[in-house]
Specification:
Four copies of one chain form a homotetramer.
Chain A lengths: L2 E7 L8 E6 L2 E5 L5 H5 L11 H6 L15 E6 L5 H4 L2 H4 L7 E3 L1 H13 L9 E3 L5 E4 L4 E7 L8 E7 L2 E6 L16 H9 L4 E7 L12 H13 L8 E5 L4 H13 L3 E5 L1 H12 L10 E3 L2 H14 L4 E5 L9 H6 L12 E5 L6 H16 L3 E3 L10 H11 L3 E5 L3 H13 L15 E6 L1
Parallel strand pairs in A: 3-4, 5-6, 10-11, 11-18, 12-15, 12-16, 13-14, 13-15, 16-17
Antiparallel strand pairs in A: 1-2, 1-19, 2-3, 7-8, 8-9, 9-10
Helix pairs in contact in A: 6-13, 7-8, 13-14
Family (chains A, B, C, D): Belongs to the metallo-beta-lactamase superfamily. RNA-metabolizing metallo-beta-lactamase-like family. Archaeal RNase J subfamily.
Subcellular location (chains A, B, C, D): Cytoplasm
Protein name (chains A, B, C, D): Ribonuclease J
């Protein structure tokens, strides 16, 4: 059976992930993501109303024209998890393919919301939920799609595996190797090792190289949680305001914040549009068991009303968890820093960033400004209480060891960023151009012909 | 009562700490440390045989000549904990003073060993043990010395407090604010807050500014422990060699390593001269309850014999914890990296650095070389599994809040390094030259006259 | 005669410089500057209409209330050169003092423009021009004010020296030691050495510590000029667009750009409001001899008209020198990068930044965005073609050697930034608190009483 | 005619360069270099006595076994210039090939010395001198070898061009684009542009990617010279010791040092083994016209004798130019720093590093130690007076523009280091794997078959 891989997006950057695998006549697409930074560099761009071609020109969504060179039928579009760089282009591209979108329940729900917000295209692909551990048949020639449970900075993430007669194709984006996650199950390394050994073994492994140049092992979410606990417990006796911020989609982290807020005698409340969106969705789908009275508010008006209530009842009884961990100009924490909300910061109030600045000068500048404005109001800043959601080098090493793939394809980075992964592979006996395929957006790699 | 403070050493650098406080006619000396880097920059210097004056000229030990300007009698020499930069000059300077050395039991034991190794001077000062929480009277005019329990990267650390009729002098070196340490009691913040409120309050606080330019809060040792657990547990299935290194004097960390080694089915063994020294001392003094069969070997011969045994019986059953976390040329791990020991590293063997590189180009160069040599043998390196033993800015903020001192004196850094502390104090209403005293080695500060 | 120094602004930051020296009953004020970054952190602040007290509260201008503690009459306000951090608060503070403003002709002209733009206060102090090398008498007790020629990144900069019966007070802000400047005379080291030896010598030297932590020697403007020449000459054969940007007030640099533009067969044209202002002023005052047909346009309309003309006549014949070297959102180059001007960038067009990014995250973020937008249009970026206008450590060393001052006061930095200067002084035999006075905003230092 | 390229060494690192080009049956080898850092990481390795295979195993010299897969006869070995990473393996590998070594006169002389120092192998290949601008015929099928003059940090550097019926192969290592070098002719861009247009144009360009991730344009040596002049002239009045160090093989820089030493009234003298070697060779071959009385001393004894003479006659009359710019433990400057030579440093003496630290932790550590030891003796350090010898991105851009090659092969870097070059090429319309060939050591690339 011919096996061909189209590396469509995310092979020259982090963002706008998209990869297609053809097994004989059947094609499966993994991820359709958005590169938000290519949008934000421009002023006043509203993606909801834009045409795909303009977004492709901007480098914001994958240029999927190479799909016409793949001779086969798309049988499924499979986003691995709900982050924008993996689902954000579905509303712009999926309608071109006559295929269902298959994903885990939480991801499907986020895809649904994405499609509902779209104002240019009507996207009517079927949405099919499949859980980690489950499989489905693709086409009529013995190809099977399996979801293996992985751990990432969002819940319900999986690595899809396409079992073909020629061996398995493991699509490894995005994950860290977490044996003690805070929500959900540990990464299913047992299954990966089985896949490495069974049948034809692994024909090809496509790897998440986000942290390919970072040494060591990405710590478990449990470590971030202990760090966060240590920080919040240390504030137990403080009787002023405490505010926290984190990635809205990072439900485990939000859960920890909510839990520790209660431990130190404060009522947590989630504020900001995306904070409400992700946590609300996770709660409705029973991924998390928040306290029944946990407030979540997204609209500016209800947020400000909540802030007023907090000011009236006493800041010392609340712990708002807000958007704005990167100092985004319009996020809630930045508004607080600029004094644009009813929440007043006093000398000694604590602001906890359970996030790391994404290392890019624009973010760094914005975050710096937010922190400076917070400090000018007397706030005390606690930052970097975080662990990455992506494998570092030793995770990559362990995955190679478990899967023993014939071919590897580094993804989710530019050339500089993935260089460490090539070095690792070569130290393990692979060789670039022979079985390590450093690809670019829009390339086709024929593995079996 | 006149109160005067002599900032003798460690006010222009990290290392060779020494401070004297005169209350009326009674003088207490806090710390007598060694600045090891001033020794190591020279080739082949043997401090054991050197005269104090030469070591003073080298900037290696405090220049205590200013003591002749302090009119009073030295009643006690009080090292706060057993690190070399706090006790390393006792064998060169203490014999000049007719006063006992007063310290906690673990520190006293290390001082004793220090004195026994000295080959130039005979040091015959009395050694008096006093526990955290206890007090003793100094002189005849109502001055009292109290030990408050603190948490640091070595066990049995205290902050001495000199209670005088004019208020308390709190000598704050070295600590982090740890509410959940792995060994020993949490920092006694309750007592610090009492001292801040009782009687005359705090006249002066001398602060450990090592991390004064670092944001946020130093995590608890518990966080490093969870990180370390995560790393070692992830290696549970590995059936080759695993080697770890950390600060020899960091008994909590060594304890965690020993414990996790056993958890993953390996026999821990401590190797290297200082590894044996510190852990052996801690065990003899009952600070730690190591497994009864834990091997500790210091002499090169017995270390190599142990390595041979490990190679014979199977690397997969052992976890050597060795010296060499900074890549020191003569330490055990560096010898292993150079292939100079019987322990053979194989492809995939793990080396765990539970330490951070001390950020100075010499260390960075040596550590880089050690890691490169290890990698050339196929070892996989895990580094930076560590938390600092010193307060960051938010710890400084909390100490000021607890003690409410009239005066503060930043210590344990150079001017650049302590600048963040001055900024913090000024944001809290203090003012440089009025009540924040940025001092230099050899200065006298008269607080009450 | 009593000598007292008030360190009013710029002793805890770079920006809002202000220092007063009292000699007996006569007071001279050096500099009254604005800290622009404290303004820009807020959205939509218009300083022209603001009251001094609000600007003081913002940390934008010096808090001159300490002046009431100086018992004497202000005889002169002496800005050293025309940069905003030295003259930008004159329009807000000078009217409080019944004293003339004394400065070199170029500086006086910029002060005049500053005052004319002021919309809140009427500033009616006399403006007195005095050239480098000249002196004037201050009061009736033998005090004299001398201007010594120095070299900086703006023309007509001086260091004022106040000769008193107790020795000279040398106010050393801002300068580099340039023996081969492009415009104007070399720094007058001969005069500094004389002042160091004559009469009572130098009682006090107030030093520009901007680069106190930088090693070596700041290169001459001649070196930047050679670098710039090398860059522009290398483009001689390019037949598309070339654009350059630099500090508008850096007349020597603008001169070099103009000259090299002509050398490679292009017509230079200066564009942007502050570009027109500074270059126009320098030309009117005969500090520079630009080509008679050199266009300078400040208003957006005339700039855009010029761009249109350039596009019509051929980009290959022009070299626009524009504002925007830091990526400032509203500057000309940023507008070009956003495609908001009639000038169209093509693949291969060159953009030359004859400036260094001011190392602060906000600037770095903005500059990064500007460069990214330029690159997205195909532009090739040449950056960092620059030398600093401030002394590095070896310049400080030479100044100490020349002046042999009894006292030194580091200025123009925060504590961290000036730390290298204190270290240097102490290596030369000074001692902090004895004759090195690390001060803070609002302090008084009594040198002779 | 078949054209094939073997990328033998220097495609995964900087160092041990070696590339072979086969045109039909004729093979030309470009460079045979040594990666010194792979030697120095080990203690006490003497390469002179080592076998090639051991050096290959160490990664110190190219693994040329792939040459057996190249079906053709080696007609010439062509080192491009005299740096060790380009000629250092000739004494270990050249004897395996029955072919002459063809190079420019200065390079040939250095190769000869290299061969004479070899103690393991007898190397008896013919040594043929060919000047820049000249050509020679290779084999009998219309292949020609041309030397194009380039500019680098060593004199007499060329880029060899192999003219084949299929187009030219331009081997672009190592160069910067210097239109105003201090010694020798400017880079021959006119010839490169001709080659780009004539006949079949350029089939393949192999590029020096050392600085591929650096923005802008590498300045001319003229800029470094002006910088150096500025530094040395600023010391004209100093009447103590001045010492300078630079790359021994950097004859232009040494020439500038010699010239400026005389300008400021000091007698230059060159000290250290490799200082004598390179400058002596350059002088003997008439590449430079040193003052007739310029002393050059290599042996430690004669160096120390010279130092004694300088101390006797007065340091203020001399300017020793010594080895040791990277703080190498056994170099002359390091010996001076450790007080191991008769030259005594006094307070205020100047040490000029006309070199940049090679950014690798080992170098950085050694250089830091050397500087610290110098400072401890009171020396004032001037560093970083240097420009790189390699093209930055805009030089790469210009070369692509001049040559318009069909294929490009990035070399002289690891994958991370060359990533910027791939990005540049792709922005110019090339595409990785199609016409940008990112290769690895030991690969064959068939361009025409």
């Amino acid at each position: 059976m011919e096996i061909e891989i189209a590396t469509i997006g995310g092979y020259e950057e982090v963002g706008r992930q998209m990869t297609a695998v053809r097994a004989g006549n059947d094609v499966v697409i993994f991820d359709m993501g958005l590169n938000l930074s290519q949008v934000l560099i421009h002023d006043n761009v509203e993606t909801e109303r834009m045409h795909s071609l303009d977004l492709i020109d901007m480098g914001a969504i994958p240029d999927d024209r190479v799909m016409s060179d793949l001779e086969g039928d798309v049988q499924a579009i499979v986003p691995t998890h709900g982050h924008l760089d993996h689902i954000g282009a579905i509303s712009k591209l999926a309608h071109r393919y006559n295929a269902p979108i298959v994903a885990t329940p939480f991801t499907i729900e986020l895809v649904k919301q994405q499609i509902e917000g779209e104002q240019k295209f009507g996207v009517e692909n079927d949405l099919i939920k499949m859980d980690a551990g489950d499989s489905m048949t693709i086409g009529d020639h013995g190809v099977e799609l399996e979801f293996v449970n992985v751990t990432h900075s969002i819940i319900d993430a999986i690595n899809p595996v396409l079992h073909t007669p020629e061996g398995a194709i493991v699509y490894g984006l995005d994950k860290r190797m977490d044996h003690s996650p805070v929500l959900g199950d540990p990464i299913d390394m047992k299954r990966f090792r089985e896949i490495g050994r069974e049948d034809e073994g692994v024909l090809c492994y496509i790897e998440d190289c986000t942290n390919a140049n970072k040494k060591g092992r990405t710590p478990s979410e449990r470590v971030a949680r202990e760090h966060l606990r240590d920080v919040l417990y240390s504030m137990e006796d403080y009787d002023g305001g405490i505010v926290a911020t984190t990635f809205s989609s990072h439900i485990s982290r939000v859960t920890s914040l909510v839990e520790f807020a209660e431990d130190i005698g404060r009522q947590p409340v989630l504020l900001g549009r995306s904070m409400e969106k992700y946590s609300g969705t996770a709660e409705r789908l029973d991924f998390v068991d928040f306290p029944s009275d946990l407030g979540m508010f997204g609209h500016r008006k209800s947020v400000d009303r909540t802030f007023k209530r907090i000011m009236n009842e006493g800041k010392e009884d609340y712990l708002p968890v807000v958007t704005g961990h990167q100092g985004e100009p319009r996020a809630m924490l930045t508004r607080m820093a600029r004094g644009e909300t009813p929440y007043e910061l006093d000398d000694g109030d604590k602001v906890v960033f359970s996030a790391r600045v994404i290392p890019e000068p624009t973010n760094e500048g914005q975050r710096y400004q937010a922190e400076k404005l917070l400090s000018m109001q007397g706030a005390r800043v606690y930052d970097d209480i975080h662990v990455s959601g992506h494998l570092n080098q030793e995770g990559h090493y362990e995955m190679l060891d478990a899967l023993q793939p014939q071919h590897v394809i580094p993804a989710h980075q530019d050339l500089k960023g993935l260089s460490g992964y090539v070095n690792l592979c070569e130290s393990e006996g692979y060789k670039m151009d022979r079985d390590v395929h450093v690809s670019r957006n829009g390339n086709l790699i024929q593995l079996v012909d």
